[in-house]
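Tokens for chain A. Residues wanted.
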């Protein structure tokens, strides 16, 4: 095999790095939102919150079994506290845990009783049509989310295909 050719490279002069003076760049003026734009943003937030509260309320899983009143839960908690004071060993730990569980149920009982579905529904009916139009939400999507047909009819959301 013949030896490979060696190529020589010509030395080229590279231009010296030029020092460029920095130009004073103008800062963009901060853009302020108009009052109408701020109002529209606030309205969108309130509409979104209203829809979210209503959908959360109607999609809340229903508890199975007999309903337990708050008074009954408080009586059971008082009995468990008495057992926790007098018991020893494992029984004391189990009674203390029962007290904590009952207190959690009592606090949950007060928060779930506070949701007024009728008020949430009437607020939803007022804004559902416009909210759906703004966000591109159709009748089928509302139904898939769990909203009843009667509520959508009262809101003025028309049945559409697709």
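Reply:
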């Amino acid at each position: 095999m013949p030896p490979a050719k060696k190529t020589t490279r010509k030395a080229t002069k590279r231009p010296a790095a030029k020092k460029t003076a920095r130009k004073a760049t103008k800062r963009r003026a901060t853009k302020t939102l108009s009052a109408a734009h701020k109002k529209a943003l606030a309205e969108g937030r309130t509409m979104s919150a209203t829809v979210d509260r209503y959908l959360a309320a109607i999609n809340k899983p229903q508890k199975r079994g007999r309903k337990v009143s708050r008074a009954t839960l408080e009586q059971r908690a008082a009995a468990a506290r008495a057992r926790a004071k007098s018991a020893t060993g494992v029984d004391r730990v189990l009674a203390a845990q029962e007290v904590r569980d009952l207190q959690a149920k009592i606090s949950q009982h007060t928060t779930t009783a506070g949701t007024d579905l009728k008020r949430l529904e009437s607020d939803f009916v007022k804004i559902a049509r416009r909210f759906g139009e703004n966000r591109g939400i159709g009748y089928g999507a509302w139904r898939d989310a769990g909203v009843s047909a009667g509520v959508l009819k009262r809101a003025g959301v028309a049945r559409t295909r697709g």
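Helices lie at 35-58, 70-86, 90-113, 117-135, 139-144, 149-155. The two ends are 75 Å apart (CA to CA).
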